[in-house]
Amino acid sequence: MSVIDIRELTKSFGHTRALDGLDLQVGEGEVRGFLGPNGAGKSTTIRVLLGLLRADGGSARLFGGDPWSDPVALHRRLAYVPGDVALWPNLTGGECIDYLSRLRGRTDPARRAALLERFELDPRKKARTYSKGNRQKVALVAALASDAELYVLDEPTSGLDPLMEAVFTQEVRALRDQGRSVLLSSHILSEVEKLCDTVTIIRAGRAVESGTLTQLRHLTRTRVSAVVRGDVRPILAIPGTHERTSERPVGADGGDGAVGGAGAGAAGPDRAAGPVGTGTTRLTLEVEPSALDEVLRALAREGVETMTASPPSLEDLFLGHYGDQHAPQASRERA
Amino acid sequence: MNASGAEPLTARPAAGTPRHPSHRADVHRGPVGSELAGTLMIARHILRRDRVRLCVWAIALTAFVLYFSVALRTVFDPEALAARAAVMRTPSGIVMGGPGYGLDHYTPMVAVANEGITWIVAALGIMSLLHVVRHTRAEEDAGRAELMGAGAVGRHAPALATLLVLTAQLLVITVLGALATLAGGDDASFLDGLGMMGGSTLAALVIGAVALLASEVAATSRTATGLALAGLALLFAVRAAGDLIHREGSLLSWFSPFAWPQQMRPFVDLRWWPALLSVAAVLVLLAVAAGLSRRRDLGRGLVADRAGRSQATSWLRSPLALAWRQQRGMLLWSCLGLGLLWLATGTMMSTLADMGRDLVSQTPALAGMLGSDSSAFTGQFLDLILLFAALCAAAYGIVASGQHCRAEETSGRLEAVLAAPVSRRRWLTAQLLVALTGTAVLLVVSVAALAAGALAVGVDDPDVGRYGAALLAHLPATLVFAALSAALFAWVPRGGGLAWMLIAVVFGIAMFGEMLDLPDWVQGISPFHWVPDSFTEDTDPAGPLMLLAVDAVLSALALVGIGRRAIDGGL
């Protein structure tokens, strides 16, 4: 059974369509990353999921139930960290933590104390004196100290320093190891890459990509960089390769490196290349999954001195989806 | 694209250039100049943000003066005015109205000045203090002051800009109000109108300066508003008490800005110098506030926060407990402040009884109207004070119920609570329970303090039972405001101000309803219209029981409504 099952969800605010047929599933024991830029609809999705907003269309099920009509029973089973943590200004951090975790039911003083220590939070300070990061820690401690089946975390590390982020990472890994489900909304790719089994990428209220990290990586190019002994031209001519650059080392005969292909963003030859033997060519290119076989065969045929192949980062995945969106915006700003 | 793009590009530096020289001059002018840098820019920004609010206040105040002037001329003939003058000699008349200049020759405009100034100053004073807190302390709480302060903006610039806009607003109201008095008929005079409105707006500016001081001392905007309102109530009471001691003002009266425009004697024998007291008071208050602000960190009160408890007490485990924890401070301070105010009022009862006896023997017209029994005066006075006490408790109810709920929602704190296994209905029930109980407690304390004060000075004519009956009769009407505020929160979250409008309407109806002969259905809007005057009339439980049903219906509406709407997140 899915812990979270959102299908064809739509939600409008006036003329703005915040969610436009969104699909999102989280299974039991799954840690799902929920990636998207600001304003893509991540927080709106979570608010519908918590029964704070009513869906206009489609369905949002939480533990198989309807979060709008039956929130209390469902909320007993989850813990939530909002993206922008607001606390009661005249309560201390400790009081806020206790209140929030008592509302959820069972509390575990030992776990609370341990978390306070790990996150280096002083619980005696009034909430209004906390910085953004410290308010975030209060919400994190309150959520992590409670024993829930599902943790809904909305950009939980915003405002945390790298040390605290590391603590957070460890805590979420511990949850994963215990078989808890987690929905982690974020725009920090490395965080999702470190923690999540599966990822849903949302853009303009729709899920544009969804699957395991491995599956998603298949959709993207592998970056290959090699020093080739033979002729690079056949390799550069293979369809399905992009961002091709090749370069003959300085001082070698044969003149300039052949820069093949018509990739729009092809970078210039890398003049600062390391020492490479005479007669060899340094070659970098990005290869589509379908072309990978052919490229490797061609490389082997021509003879390879050194080679690295790096898997696509989530960053590439992300930029692939948003890069074209940013471009018109930037040009509009320039106008 | 090039042609259209060129315009903003050239326009931008053009708009920026004049700022540069003045900017540099600020730096060279030394500390005073640099502390005021950016004032005009902020003032323009405030005007932009508040343009609707400012206009509404100006129009409402002008309409009030206009209506008052016209109505007194048309509704009252000279005999009725003479009778009204007699009423204005009574204690209730003095508290509701003014010091009583020109009572021997009571013309419409004399009446406007004598009875209107108190309320003009009160209304404009509330406007001023809300405006000041809104643009100083509340901006700090919201974190916007930090954003602004990071720019080339001086330390005192936001406060000065706030006061500049307020002064301009008051100036506009002065002129419009003075013009409105011209509708008052034969004895209308622009100069006297200007004196009345100018004196009143200057007194309101003093209240604004008090609010600025409160903003420096308090740790949050809510506390600042509370402090400033308490200051306003105190100054109101000081003027009333001073004038009760001696008609046309005693030494005590002069300690309140309310008295200063009244002592200018507009439409009777205009003199200008009391206005200087307002100017001096504003300057002194501003100097003190500026001094305090140099000692204070942005976003903090003067008194630093101490470390609190690291764990919550064991009872803090439900929305009800948290609502109580959040509001008990406000309730305690309200009980203390208002309790002292009504206790002091109660102790004046013996003086008033003597005054009543003298008045009846000296003024046959009054004896004809009210009977020769001087206790009629005390009863009438107590009814008025009870209405004031009930309205104060009602205002508390609005703050504690709908306004508090809305603040929880817009800050995003409600979201955190509702994400826990807490139903909306349970949460709102808790808020309502605490608000209604707090309102009731405040009314009980107020009436008890009033009774204790009166009994302490030996006035035992209304006995304790009568006070108890009066309390029971007024309680349902008082609770209407908290319940209405909660219902508004549930159904029209942005319309919370409507509950405050009801307070204003009740006030207008109570003060001027019968005098202006408003139709019954209009007077019926006021919940207190249905409550018998407990100290002068027989107790009739029908009205209060009906209001109890209204309370129940409004509360039920609130609980139904909250389940049906989306919850705003913080942002």
Automatic annotation (TrEMBL), chain A:
Indicate yes or no for the key word ATP-binding: yes
The record's annotation in InterPro entries points to: AAA+_ATPase (IPR003593), ABC_transporter-like_ATP-bd (IPR003439), ABC_transporter-like_CS (IPR017871), ABC_Transporter_VariousFunc (IPR051782), P-loop_NTPase (IPR027417)
Locate the ABC transporter domain: which residues? 4-229
Keywords, ordered alphabetically = ATP-binding, Nucleotide-binding, Transport
Q: Which domain of life is it from?
A: Bacteria
Transferase keyword on record: no
Positions of region (Disordered): 242-278, 307-335
Instruction: Spell out where the chain crosses the membrane.
Output: none
Q: Where is the composition biased (Gly residues)?
A: 252-266
A molecular function annotated in GO for this UniProt entry is: ATP binding
- List, alphabetically, the PANTHER family matched: ABC TRANSPORTER ATP-BINDING PROTEIN ALBC-RELATED (PTHR42939:SF1)
The protein depicted here goes by the name ABC transporter ATP-binding protein
Provenance organism: Brachybacterium endophyticum
Classification of source organism = Bacteria, Bacillati, Actinomycetota, Actinomycetes, Micrococcales
From TrEMBL, chain B:
Specify where the region named Disordered lies, as residue ranges. 1-31
Instruction: Give the coiled coil ranges.
Output: none
Q: Name one GO molecular function term.
A: ABC-type transporter activity
Has the keyword Transmembrane helix been applied to this entry? yes
This protein's source sits in the domain of life called Bacteria
**What are the transmembrane regions?**
54-72, 116-136, 157-182, 194-214, 226-245, 272-292, 330-353, 381-399, 432-457, 469-491, 498-516, 542-562
Q: Which GO terms describe its cellular component?
A: plasma membrane
Kindly indicate where the leader peptide sits in this chain: none
Q: What are the UniProt keywords, alphabetically?
A: Membrane, Transmembrane, Transmembrane helix
Q: What is this protein called?
A: Polyketide antibiotic transporter
